Every structure is written in C-alpha cells, then in structure tokens.
Amino acid sequence: RQERERQKDETRREDQQVKKEQQGRQDGDRQEGQQQDEERRRMERGDWVSDKDADDEKAPRYSGIESFTWSPVAQELLFVSEGDIYHYAVADGTIRRLTRTRARESSVDWWPDGSGYHFRRDGALMRVLFGSDVERQLDPKFPQDDSLATYEVSPDGHTIAFITQKQTKPPQSSKVEIASYRDRLMKAREVSRQVSDDPLGEYDLRVYLYRLSDKPDEQDKLTEVFVGKKVLPDDDVRALTWSPDSQRLAFMVFEQDSALVTIYQSRLDGPDERDKPVVDAEKKDAEAQEGDGDNDDAQSPDPNETSKESDEADRLKAQPIFRFYHHGGPNTPRLMTLYYLADNHHLVYLSEQTGFRHLHVLDPLYESTRALTRGTFEVYPVEISKDRAWVFVLATKEDPACLDVYKVSTRNGRMIRLSRDRGVHTDPAVSPDGTTLLCNRASYETLRELVFIDAGDKEAAPRELTDSHPDAARQFAEPKPEFFEYRNRHGHRIRGMGFKPDDWSPQDRRPCLIYFYGGPLGTRKQVVEASYSEYVYAFPYYMAKKHGYVAVAIDPRGNSGYAGVFEKANYGRVGQPQVEDIVDGADYLVAHWGVDPERVAIHGWSFGGFQTQMCMYTEPDVFAAGIAGAGPTEWEN
Description:
With 637 residues, the chain is of the alpha+beta class. It has 9 helices and 36 strands.
C-alpha cells in the first residue's frame, strides 16, 4: 500500500509539474505574442528597432534621430526622426508623435516661451501651439515673390526676422562633351558645366521684420528693412540676432568684391536719447514758424493716418553701425556671428581683424571695437550664456593640433578652460550656468567618446559616459604618430606628423612619402589629434612599418585653422605657397628624420591632387614620384 501511495504521489506531482510547465509555456507564448505585436506596431510606426536586429540578415532601416532641442521651461525635448516630429518627456519617459506626413519636417525648435514649436515643411515656416488644433503658416507671401532663406524669432515671440532671396538674373553655363566609360564602348555626351568666364546668377537679398498680431484680426505686419545684391558667390547677408529685450535686430553683410563687412541694426523701439542727434533750438523755432501762413486752413490728409506706415517703415530701416574690411581667409565671412550683450546695446562678434579668428566687442554708439580675445590661435564661438556674461567657444589656444572648450568673459575677455585633457573636443553642449558640459573628446590616447565635465570643480576629472568601440578598433588606434614643426623660408611655423620604421635611426637615408591637402576647409585641417583617416594615419603607418618609409602628413599654407595668412595664401597664386612649404618640409625631413633626398614622394586627393602635380611640375629635382588623386589639371580664377 505504501508503494502504491508513493507512486500515486509521484504521479500527482508529475501531473502538477506538467500542468505548471504547460501554463508557463502558455504565459510565455502570450507574453512573446504581446511583445511581437508591440514590436510589429512600433515597426509600422517606424520608431522602433528591436534588440535582435543586429543578428538579422536584413535589419530594418533606421535613420536615427536627426536633431533635438530642449524646452526652455521644462525637462522635455522635441526631436525629428524619419522626417517627423516627436515630443519626449523626461519625467515619465513617454514619447508622443506630433506629425505624420509624407512631407519631411525639419528645423524644429520651441517657441520662445515653450508654449509650442515651429518648424519648416516644404520651404514654409509653420507653428503649432500646444492645446490648439490650428497649424499656422508664419512666413507670409513676400511682396517681391522672394523665397525664404532663413529666419530668427525674437525672444518675446512677437516678431520674426526673415532673410529672403530672389533670382534677378539666371546663371549661364557652357555645353561641353565628356566621355563615359561605364558601358562596353566609350560614349560621348553633352553636359552643362559652368566655367570661370560664364556669367554668374544674380540675386536680390532682403531682410524683413514680421510683427505678429495678438488680436483675432490676424493683421500681421511685414516691413522690409534692408535690400542688397548677391552678384559674386560669397556675397552674403547673415547672422540675424535679436537683443534680449527683442527691440533690436542686428545682422552682417559681406561684399566679396570690396571685401567690406557691414554690421546693420534695425530698431523697433526707435533711437533712445543717447542715439538722438542734437537739434539747434533756434533752427527748430524757425522751422516751426515756417508753418504759419495762408494755407494753414487748407484741407490736407491727417499726417497721423497717411504717413503712419511710411514713418514706421523709415524708422525700422536697418542702419549701418560698423564697417571693416576683411583681408583674411575666404571661409571666415560665413563663420561670422553676432551676440547682443545684456545691456541690449553692445555686440560681440567674430572677425579676423587681428590676423586670427577672434571675438570682438562693438559699441554701436561710438562705432568703436576692441578685441575680446587675442593671441596666435583660433577661436570659434559656440553660444552665449543666458545672462550674457560668458561666451562659450572652441579654441586652439593650447596647441594647433587640439581643440578645447573655454568660456570667455564678455567683460574683460578672460578665458577659462573647461576641458582638461589633451585632444580634440567637438559638439559641446554647455549648461546655461556654465558649470557643466558634455562634448565628444578624442585623442591619440583614446578614441572618440562622450564625456561629462564639471567645470565648477577644478579637481574633478572628466568622466566618460560612453564606451563605443570594440577591442579591434582600440587595437587599430594603438599607434601614435610623432608631431613635428619647422619654419618655412618666410618664417611661418608649419606643422606635420608621421611615422618612422621600427629600426629607424637619425643616420638613415630612408624613402619618404608626404601627404597633404593644402586647401581651405573652414576650420578643419589634417595635422590634429585623433585624425584616424587612411591618408594621414593608416596608410602612413603601413608604409612605415611594412615597407620602411618615413611617412608623414604636412599642413602647408592654404590650410584652415592656423591664421588668416594661411587660409588666404592661395589667392592669386594657387599652389605656389604650398610648393614652397612642402619643399621646405622635405629639406627638414632630410636633415632631421633620416630621409634620402633622392627618394621623396608626395600624394594627395582633390586639391591635394592638384598640389601634387604643381610640386612635380615645378620642383622635379626635389620630388621623385607623385600620386595625384582626382586633382584638377587646370585652374581658372
């Protein structure tokens, strides 16, 4: 009996275990089914990538987040993904989709008071206020049928500044025949190509003020405050900026032919007492008496009615408040930016008047300017603090091969370094009070990672927030190039970096391979920390370690990021300064890096390909071989 009872108990337990496992499988299947349904729904919405996508042979395409912007009043953000706008609340982690259209939305930003947001769609400027069903188009029909180029909303949200353009003369191009070798036999076809003597297109550039009505009549008012011309490629109207009180608008105009930069200002509040001209009292009385005469009783339009709009348009017309000539690099005008200070009067702006890109402070009343930062380094503004006491910048102050984050006092120009470690710091995001920041940091000691910096604690080390690279990438980046510097024949400091063979000695006579670009790239250059490209890093390392070359990269004049005299070196003599600097670099390498003067080779791509040919053709006794990649063969100014 005991045995039978024991067997019954075992059978009962087995049955219970089977039922439990079945129930577990059913629950698991139900949960997995629910997860699959949720993933399917999210996939249909286009906003979800599952964990196993990396293992799929063909994972769904996902473009990621294109841009995001924080609310000015709450811990919320708006972001754009797949051309649609989403709202994210930090508190509960919820994501809410705000648009679902075939058109792509872009340039999304919050309305200044956080009550809604504005964005671009098919060229139009749209606004949506939270809690409202109305989607409003903010750009009006411009009187000259101009097209909207850019805009800036005033801090109080009552006025929008527009820059528009309208083509007045279409560009002309030449018809040329080119050969196509894609098929079995060569085919010639005719295409349009614009060359140096083809007429350029011309454009009217305008600045408008658009005052939004707070009343139901929707009587918004558009006023033209500036009109200019674009007849050369670099002619430009840019850098719209509002004063904190929303009563002044400033912008820059650059004329390429004359190299003149003019800063304009439009006043919504009219001139204040310190800007008003002094009027002679006797002259004023005489003018008043001229109004007494026989026609005093004649019927005439009420000046308060007939000239009100004309007077307002004249009052809003932008006035030049400062002019200077730009004699630096060709890329600097498009980098110029403006910031009003807290007094709504003084302006901080970027220029190259000192020979390097630096910040200046302008007093419009006296049309006087002073350098805020100075030295033999470059400064690139990022943003201004909420209280307008500090400008956050990137600068090459520590080393031309590095880029660090600083805050600059708008009162006395004092620069405080916020980043600490050697390297290239990019894309900084600084807290409004300037005490903390996030940025990407990379060097030849570490690959690029996102770092957190407590700028208020001088003892705190930067903290890496990401771990983005596999061991294979770290192994690839272990070699560290050696930096060097030499003086060219004119005394300029020219920088380079490269690799030597493992068994190298100063007495060697090694073959040498030099890479260069030599053209302006805005702020970029080749000889910097964490430049892991194949041409300046991987290939030179391979040639040094595998084939025994001294392999280097050099930044000759013509490159950006060193000084105005470097970036503008090409003007009127394209390629000549680079030839001089590369020849002087070859002499330096022969003297200090154990290079055989009979075996110096060069190579480059694009402008570097053009430059390779220039060196080979003009200095054949210096360079034994060259590889010109995709380089122009004829240069026309």
